[in-house]
Each structure stands twice: as C-alpha cells, then as structure tokens.
Amino acid sequence: MNSFTNDFYLKKGIIFLNHGSFGATPKPVLQTSQFYQIEMEKQPVEFLGRRAGSLLENSRNILANYLKTSPQNIVYITNTTIGVNIIARSLELGAGDEVLATNQEYGALDRTWKFLSQKRGFQYINHPLKVPVKASGEVIECLASGITKNTRVLFISHISSPTAMIFPLKEMIQIAKENQIITVIDGAHAPGQLELDLDALGADFYVGNMHKWLCAPKGSAFLYASPSSAHRIEPLVVSWGWQSENPSGNQLVDFLEWQGTRDISPFLSVPSAIEYQEQHQWKEVRTRCHHLASLAYQRITELTTIPPLYPDSLDWFSQMVSLPLPNSVNTDELKDQLYDRYQIEIPIISWNNRKFIRISIQCYNDESDINALMNALTHLIPF
Ligand SMILES: Cc1ncc(COP(=O)(O)O)c(C=O)c1O
Q: Which of 227, 259, 276 is a domain's end point?
C-alpha cells in the first residue's frame, strides 16, 4: 500500500509486477476517457462528425509538447503494433534490401517484418547483440557491424521487451544517418519511463505507446514521422483522408487519423494522463521506481549468482529490469506457480535460449512487493 494504491482499480491481494505488458490506468485518467465516451453518446453525429477533429487536434498539440516535437509530426494510432505495421508496409523495400534489427525485438513486430520480407523479397536480419554488456560502445559497435551496403532500414527498440535494456539510440540513429539508412524506432516502453525529445533524437520514424508507462487508457499510441520522411507514409487503412476533398494540410493526420468509426476517447484522455503524472511529481516517482527496480536487480542477482545482462544503472534500465534465471527453470510452470500460489503477476521469459524474470515497477509498487517476490523465488527455484 502507498499513496497511489487507491488511485488504481488494481485488485487487492494481487502483487502486480507486470506494468510492462499491460499497464494500469489511474482512476482520474479513466474518468476522462469515460467522460468523452458519454459526450459521444449524447450526440454521436455531433461528436464524431463535428467535434472530433478539433478535440483530436487539441490533444495532439499537448502530446507534441510533451514529446518535444511539432504537432505536424505526430498522429494518434491505437498501438505500437499498428504503428510499426503502417511504417513497414509503407516503405518501398524489395529484393536485395536489408532491414537490420537486433535479436531483442518484440516478437509480434519480428513477425511483421518477416511477413513482409517473405512477400517482398528483402532480408530481415536479427543481428545478435553480445551480452552481458558493460558499456554502450559495445552495443553500438556490435550493431554497426551488422550494417552492409544493402541495409536500408534500422529497426530497433528504445527499450527492449525481453531484456528491458535501454538502447543507445542517439548514437545508433547518427550512424544510420551517416549510412543513409532509414530509422524505425519501437518506443512502446519509452513514454513515461524516459524523458523524450523526439526532435533532438532525430529518428525518421518513432512509434510509442501512451497506454503503457504514461498510464493512458488502452488504445492510445502515437506515430512520429520526421518532416523529411513523412512523405513515405501510406495509409494502412485507406479511408476518407486519402485524396481528401478537405485536406487538413497535414498528410500524416489525413492518412492515418480517421480509420472509420471507432472510440477516440483513449486519444482524448492522453492530456489527462500527462497531467496526472505532472501533478504527482513524476520525476521523483520514476526515481523511486528505479531504485526499487535496482533493489530487485541486486537481490535477484545475489540469489541466482548469475551475472546480469547490463550494469545496475539508470543508463541501462529505468522502471523495468530483466534478470537471468537458471536455465533449469520451466518458464510456464514458474509463472503459474508465482500467480497461483503467491498471487504475483510477473512475466517469466525465454530469450536467446535463456530464462529471465522481468520486473516492472510502477508508482503503486513498493518494497513489500519485492520482498514477496524474493520470498516466492526462494521457495520455487531449486538452487
Ligand atoms: C518492445 C515492444 N514493442 C511493441 C509492443 C506492442 O505494443 P502494443 O501491444 O501496444 O502494440 C510491446 C508490447 O509489450 C513491446 O514490449
């Protein structure tokens, strides 16, 4: 229990250490979303037909300010999976071309690229990164060694799903630029965990979830395209915005925002999620969460004696950390036992022929959650 507990609907008695998979939304933010749903129901044609455009524009302006970019460069989408699909399908790639990624990308998006590579004849390469790492230079050097004269796209997570590692993005984007390689960043876990400055980052494309660490309602994400790359984006779902009779002057928004009738309340509640975090001194919350993640790092490492993948530092992880477990662990069994016997919701992951536990710390967690996890692991894992 802490001062945030009552702001969430999370079930009492469940130790929720998996904000990284599906994050919980604070009650005031959810109330904003419900307010807009009711507004829509009062006069659906008025809401979707006349008000939606300016409501979305206002929400986009606030989001752009938060992400440190121009509202011209971003558009709301439902989730990161859709965003990466939009970008991957838009890029003109064919036989002889290569898309370079790491071996730490999110499985669903590996599938997106593999599917397209089979249809279009380009190569999708999951370049293996050496672990453990001690310095960012090692990651940069290793990934850069995967660049060839055929590399057209670099697809890379900002924070990796299986390892929770923060990638040295700025340097990688710089190297890609020097090699005329288009950068596509999967930022599913970054907004809310990291301070973002999209203009300074300089990626061609960046997709981020608002419904994970910003705690906005499910179904809120954004797609960023730099001014020099936005022309490459095509509408994945072709609707009124293509060959529009009333173009807004922003092709990204015209092509992607209206995808037929749908609930836009998650998009409209993003300003409320930003405000919630500002009102609660989120920098301090984040620091407290990182310290707890770091405590889990130290205690699990002490228990397993297996070297972690990266140093215990804010440069490598923020509120989420993945730690190696003995290979003898049965991932499904351990996950079920943690939930069924100890009411702990936490992912146990297989990656690169190894086993990991990924701990997510959000504002509502405290040290007693780590203590409970350690107690359960001590009993469940045979050392
Ligand atoms: C790194 C990464 N990318 C993309 C996604 C997909 O996010 P969504 O389900 O919101 O599309 C996830 C989900 O956990 C993820 O961890």
A: 276
Kindly report the backbone phi and psi dihedral angles of residue 18, in degrees, each rounded to the nearest multiple of 5, phi listed first.
-135, 45
Residue ranges making up the domain that contains 344:
5-27+281-380
Q: Based on the fold, state whether residues 263 and 124 are members of the same structural domain.
A: yes
Q: Is 223 exposed, middle or buried (0-12, 13-18, 19+ CB in 10 A)?
A: buried
Residues 217 and 93 in one domain: yes
Cα–ligand 1 centroid distance for 109 (angstroms):
8
- Quick check: 198 and 206 in contact, CB under 8 A? yes
Question: Does residue 85 share a domain with residue 64?
Answer: yes
Instruction: Find out whether the beta carbon of 79 lies less than 6 Å from any atom of ligand 1.
Output: yes
Burial class (CB in 10 A: 0-12, 13-18, 19+), 126: middle
Ligand 1 atom 4 nearest Cα = 188
| Pocket lining: 356 vs ligand 1, CB cutoff 6 Å | no
Q: Which of 276, 304, 334 is the last residue of a domain?
A: 276
Task: Report which protein residue has its CA nearest ligand 1's atom 10.
Answer: 79
CATH number at residue 364: 3.90.1150.10
The pTM of the full predicted model, rounded to 2 decimals, is 0.98
Provide the residue-wise pLDDT of the chain in tens; the chain has 383 residues: 899 999 999 999 999 999 999 999 999 999 999 999 999 999 999 999 999 999 999 999 999 999 999 999 999 999 999 999 999 999 999 999 999 999 999 999 999 999 999 999 999 999 999 999 999 999 999 999 999 999 999 999 999 999 999 999 999 999 999 999 999 999 999 999 999 999 999 999 999 999 999 999 999 999 999 999 999 999 999 999 999 999 999 999 999 999 999 999 999 999 999 999 999 999 999 999 999 999 999 999 999 999 999 999 999 999 999 999 999 999 999 999 999 999 999 999 999 999 999 999 999 999 999 999 999 999 999 76
CB of 18 within 6 A of ligand 1: the answer is no
